[in-house]
Amino acid sequence: MAAYKQLDTDKRIRLQTLLESHHSFQQIAIELDTSKSTISREVRRYRVEHNTMGFGHINRCSKRRECDVQGLCPGMSFNCRNKRCCSCRKVNCNTVCGRYEEYHCPLTDKPPYVCNGCQKRTGCAYRKQMYFAEKADAQSRLLRSECRSGMNLTEEEIAEIDGIISPRIHLGQSLHHIFVTARDELCISERTAYTLLHAGMLSARPVDAPRIVRMKPRRTKKQIKVDKACRVGRTYKDFQKYMEEHPDTEVLEGDTVEGVKGGKCILTLTWKSTDFQIGFLRDHNNSASVTMIVNRLHEDFGDDLFRKVFPPVWLLDNGAEFSNPSEIEKFGVRVFYCDPSSPYQKGTCENTHTHIRRILPKGTSFDSLDQGFVNCMFSHINALVRKKLNNHSAFDVFSSLYSADLDIRLKLHICRVEPADVELKQSLVRKYYDSHQPALTQEVSES
Question: How does DSSP classify residue 398?
């Protein structure tokens, strides 16, 4: 005999036909090649109440044969010709009589538990129990779906999970970052955490988690380039051709993050293979400020270390601030430019900029910032765990490449930030300047 399992649609249709043909459960089990208990459970679980009426006067009260109640009809208690209301066709004592108790057919309490094969079904006035294959199949699918939905978590477990996840979400950390760095503390999957967050079962809300940055259409303006022919031989097609010939060459992506138009801005340099990004605060968004920073980096590192740390290929934005490539290429690098209005061509750089915008939203003025805060901000950004880096941070991957040269990280002014302390929200600005306020006050008093 086959083990118990759910019947499929074809077997349920066959079961309904056999029930209507007065077959016993034993005979049906043989026909469907299953157990008798399977048929019994199937019929009792998925039978439905079928409220059809029989012929003639309908009275479903179990006491109708000995009932002598009169006067239920309003205003006709003394003029009614019927001696008993239970036999009256003008009043439905099923709904107005306080002694009414509906009769329950005892045949539905024993096999076959349904009225499909009953010979009295046509003229029967009582409520019936019926088995319909189509409804049984639909109810079975719904039951399986409901059994697989929901979460098997107690209130204490949810409270414990909330105490671990929510405080770190409020610091601007992503759920993926939290699960990689606190895997041993959590007893659920990352997908379940997202479900809890969107279901409102955590104190943190979806709005507290990192949001997708929606880029507005860029405003077009006339740009003044230092070298109008700077793009000749340095277009994105030239870059693709060069990379086909040198596929293993490391690439550095360069761009500018602007605050208020005309104010301070940040030059960003991103190592494409590691997502490692550094930034430099500039007073004006012009070519002179970019070349000054590149010259200072070459001077600080020295020629040999500069060529070792900074990739030989630089893919830069098409802005006017990068229009003097000769000042960069004199240090032995190749400069190429993205096409206009094509930020996707330097996707690693643009994706990392989304973390900057979580700390410094668009429209925020950078005039009150200093380079110390910029270094602090990029230290937090580089400490964020990335899925594309096999659940490592950009800082760790970059450090592993230059583990023997500690001086490199010191020259870049990027420090290690513990995973639990990573903060990528606007509150980082206030916390940084609050912690450095005593030092600033001392500097002013000494001067």
Answer: H
